[in-house]
Design a protein that fits this description.
binds adenosine-5'-diphosphate; 5 domains; Rossmann fold; 727 residues; binds zinc ion; 28 strands; GIY-YIG endonuclease
Length: 727
């Protein structure tokens, strides 16, 4: 700590949430009566406001240009020292994330804390902590906790002990023993229904039993879609260690709930944190295990602020903390798959294989319907329809999915060329029949459907194409007269973003599926992920072809994974598994992607994709970043990016790196205009991650100064996305 005259106090660097690209990217300096350890939460004045801040360890950065004048420094208003300071590992994670994803450290640090902390005084916080300590079922003192859990374990009910007497499959046992004998990182490559979750729980259980203070972080893509996982963890671990053992962290929680979870993790009282991507930043002083379930899921990548990948940060964090990390998927991301190739070929992760389903559950038979041989207007081909009807009559369930919600993606005039374009976006408004609106899915602009064509007055305007709403209507027509075994007419339910808008709607719809009230489930990819639907024996993808020829090089990877996941929904119950099927309606039945899918052969698919990526020098064989800019016109947005690109060649620190990089010309984004704002992007690519990182760090300053040029006045925002998922 700096030696200062006692009356002035100690110079203390504090991170606050400064605007992302303000020049105050580092810590600010305040005065403190007594030295505060790094990681202490404080309240500090900034301008007229008082903000939450974190005492940081870096030397203040503003000293270089203007020597600090202690007379001008302001004192820290209060230290929230009822809380133990955030650990050095946590601070290192934040610093890394900020520098890697090119954001201000203060922004990342403060965004990683529960929002409610921002508005709490030290008195309020102390009161809150007291209340929590009183309410705690289990004392936070570790010695006590051990006693209590031993007592609980002895008092286990028969039902509870039954959970533990599960006989692991040979593949599960193999994976777990590999996990124990090696340091990782691990990629658990297990078929859907192979018992991955069980492996996660076993590894967690052993950690908790063997190290009395150890904590585990379990991440899932979207917690609302995987409530079953939460239930399973709670059922197993709360019975053993008490109610507070498992806490959740996701954006669906109230601010008060999030604060409670955060405090429980920070104090060590919670031993398992179950959360979405934000949980990667949870303060867990005794973190020893990180699990990333469905690691391929794009929702691990943040799409605002610091665009971090929680999966990648999990790997980094595990190394920092000396914790083990296990990624799991039936269809790993090609990045993780590539990392898990044999060590002799340069792989850094250890792959744990579980190819078989638990018990007698078989993977479904994949059937392709060649749509070239069907009637032109055909939506559900006759053989698929017959197969669905057969399931209904047998009392089994079917799931039909289509990746487009609404009734029809476009309305069109049958006379002139009017289409339902959004006035604010370069996109069509989607027709929703239920309330007869045209809704823009990008800016939200919504209007009643016009009675006649706004351009020529023709009253005949017709839907073009098909969304889930129309598919549901169509299926209902096709299936009229088909009866369930109880003689009742068929029941169809649709699940998509429109039907689940109300709180609790998704849960009640899912319950209908689980109890068997529903025979046919129609929906978007939302229904294809994660749910454990026991009675579904048929899954159908109505129109999966779009992704085959997309300009996004990751589209085939996403399609394959979605279809494998969807197929994984079928036949989970061994009683009905023998006949489970996945149907694909396609105009390209012999496409290699579908061939690999038919064989449930992810490794073959991955090998062919990786070969293509290697030939084209695309990730994971190169590293990318996107700079996106928004302005009133495309000219301004693109002009700014192109000027910054030219300036990079003129400035020595960036120019020196250009030999290792490709800067592509600025182009409009795939949806160029949203809510009347034009969007452009520039791709930066390098075979070296380090070179890309060094370039971006140096280029930040260039981008800032370019924006000050008169030609760039109209630029509203710009931001860097490192390792972008959508290009
Ligand atoms: P995954 O996560 O790989 O899809 P799960 O862990 O959810 O698979 O397991 C699928 C089903 O099989 C679950 O209902 C689970 O309880 C059950 N299961 C897992 N392991 C075993 C086992 N060793 N013996 C019996 N059932 C198991
Ligand atoms: Zn018209
Ligand atoms: Zn719009």
């Amino acid at each position: 700590m700096t030696q200062t005259p006692p009356r002035l106090g100690t110079l203390t660097p504090v991170l606050v949430h400064t605007p992302a690209y303000s020049q105050m990217a580092g810590a600010l300096t305040y005065l403190s009566d007594s030295p505060l350890p790094p990681g202490t939460l404080v309240r500090v004045p900034l301008g007229q406001r008082e903000l939450l801040g974190v005492v940081w360890d870096t030397a203040p950065q503003d000293g270089a240009t203007s020597p600090l004048d202690p007379a001008k420094l302001r004192p820290i208003a209060a230290a929230l020292d009822a809380l133990p300071p955030l650990s050095a590992n946590w601070r290192a994670l934040i610093s890394f994330a900020a520098s890697y994803y090119q954001r201000a450290t203060g922004e990342v640090a403060l965004a990683a804390l529960p929002p409610q902390l921002r508005d709490m005084s030290s008195v309020q916080l102390a009161r809150k902590l007291k209340k929590l300590a009183k309410a705690a079922h289990v004392p936070s003192n570790p010695a006590h906790r051990q006693d209590t859990s031993a007592g609980l374990a002895q008092g286990l009910s028969a039902a509870q002990s039954a959970i533990y007497s599960i006989v692991l499959s040979a593949e599960q046992t193999g994976a777990i023993s590999q996990f124990h004998q090696n340091s990782g990182p691990f990629l658990l490559f297990g078929a859907t229904g192979s018992g991955k979750t069980e492996v996660f729980m076993q590894c967690t259980a052993e950690l908790l039993a063997n190290s009395p203070n150890a904590q585990a972080l379990v991440m899932v893509p979207e917690i609302n879609l995987t409530p079953q996982l939460e239930e399973r963890f709670k059922a197993r671990f709360c019975a053993l260690y008490g109610e507070d053992t498992v806490v959740s962290m996701h954006s669906g929680m109230t601010p008060a709930q999030r604060l409670n979870s955060w405090l429980a993790a920070h104090s060590g009282a919670a031993r398992i944190v179950l959360g979405t991507r934000m949980a990667v930043f949870a303060s867990m002083p005794q973190l020893k295990l990180i699990i990333v379930d469905e690691e391929h899921d794009p929702s691990y990548k943040s799409n605002e602020g610091a665009r971090y990948s929680a999966r990648d940060l999990a790997i980094y964090r595990a190394r920092l903390e000396g914790a083990k990390v296990m990624l799991g998927s039936a269809t790993p991301s090609l990045e993780s798959w590539h990392h898990s190739r044999p060590a002799a070929e340069g792989g850094r992760y250890m792959r744990l294989d579980m190819p078989s389903r638990v018990g007698s559950g078989q993977l479904p038979l994949v059937r392709r319907v060649d749509m070239n041989h069907q009637a032109k207007s055909c939506v559900i081909s006759p053989p698929l329809l017959a197969a669905i009807a057969e399931r209904i009559a047998r009392g089994e369930q079917s799931m039909v999915f289509l990746n487009r919600r609404g009734y029809a993606p476009v309305l069109q005039c049958t006379d002139c060329d009017w289409k339902s374009e959004c006035p604010n976006c370069s996109a069509y408004r989607v027709f929703h029949k239920i309330d007869r609106t045209l809704r823009c899915h990008h800016c939200g602009f919504s209007e009643r459907v016009p009675r006649a064509c706004p351009a020529c007055g023709n009253p005949d305007i017709a839907p073009l194409g098909r969304g889930t709403e129309r598919l549901e209507e169509h299926l209902a027509e096709l299936l009229t007269g088909v009866l369930r075994p109880d003689g009742q007419p068929v029941r169809i339910v649709r699940i998509d973003a429109d039907t689940t808008r109300l709180k609790g709607a998704l849960e009640s719809q899912l319950a209908q599926v689980h109890t068997g009230e529903v025979d046919v489930l129609v929906g978007t990819q939302m229904i294809a992920k994660g749910h454990d639907f026991r009675r579904i024996t048929l899954v159908a993808a109505v129109n999966p072809d779009n992704a085959l020829f997309s300009s996004d090089f990751r589209a085939p990877e996403r399609l394959f994974s979605l279809l494998m996941q969807a197929a994984g929904r079928a036949g989970r119950d061994s009683a009905v598994a023998g006949s489970s099927e996945m149907w694909l309606q396609t105009f390209h039945p012999t496409h290699p992607l579908f061939e690999a899918l038919k064989k449930h052969d992810y490794p073959a698919f991955a090998a062919s994709q990786l070969k293509e990526r290697q030939q084209a020098a695309m990730p994971p064989f190169s590293f990318q970043a996107l700079v996106r800019a928004e302005a009133r016109t495309q000219e301004i947005a693109q002009g700014f990016l192109n000027l910054a690109s030219q300036a990079a060649a003129q400035q020595s620190d960036t120019a020196a790196l250009l030999a290792h990089l490709t800067l592509y010309p600025a182009v409009p984004m795939s949806i160029a205009r949203i809510a009347n704002i034009e969007r452009a992007q520039m791709l930066v690519e390098s075979p070296s991650r380090a070179a890309l990182q060094r370039f971006l760090t140096a280029w930040q300053g260039v981008l800032h100064s370019t924006r000050q040029l008169p030609d760039c006045k109209g630029v509203m925002r710009w931001a860097i996305d490192v390792d972008p998922l959508n290009i």
